[in-house]
Amino acid sequence: MTKFFLALHILAAIVAIGPVAVAASMFPPVARRALAAPGTGDAEVTMGVLHRICKVYALVGVAVPMFGFAVAGVMKVTGQTWVIVSIVLTVLAAVVLGALVLPRQAELIEGGRDGAGASVKDTKQLAMFVGIFNLLWAAVTVIMIIRPGSTLGH
């Protein structure tokens, strides 16, 4: 069962977190293009598509910790420091995405539609939050590979 849950955990991470990381990273430059030339080109449509990708795959991403808990349970490592740190970082990444990235994307989309004065500063702040989200997931990935302090012996 360990290999089965581990495979599902890794596949879920690749399929769910990868698209969010890429789409969220693409959003700020596209938003800057839309702000620079409102109503021209396809930047506004692209913003909507990227935001939708982030929202949908964020929901799919719930499978990552779900399968992670299954793996940790089967391996009996739920109390190990590397697992706890990974859980904390995963929760932080989810909070950054849900509270800082997705709402700001929606605000930039709405600001573009109704001319509510979104600015390049808003896109830079969004880019910073996306960077934090991506760094948190990179840290979780490194911890999952290295397993510092692990007593598994391999």
In short:
The chain is mainly alpha-helical. It has 5 helices and no strands.
Gross geometry: elongated
Q: How many strands, what sense, and barrel or not for the largest sheet? A: none
Strand content: under 5%
Order of helices and strands: HHHHH
Q: What's the total number of strands? A: 0
What is the overall number of helices?
5
The gyration radius over C-alpha positions equals 18 Å
Structural class: mainly alpha
Overall pLDDT metric:
92
Helical fraction? over 70%
Low-confidence stretches: none
User: What assembly state would you assign to the polypeptide chains in this entry?
Assistant: single chain
Distance between the termini: 18 Å
Question: What would your notes on this structure say?
Answer:
It is a single chain. With 154 residues, the chain is mainly α. It has helices at 2-36, 43-60, 63-75, 81-114, 120-146. The model has no long low-confidence stretch (mean pLDDT 92).
Question: What's the arrangement of secondary structure elements?
Answer:
Elements: H1 2-36, H2 43-60, H3 63-75, H4 81-114, H5 120-146
Helix pairs in contact: 1-2, 1-3, 1-4, 1-5, 2-4, 4-5
List its salient traits.
mainly alpha; 154 residues
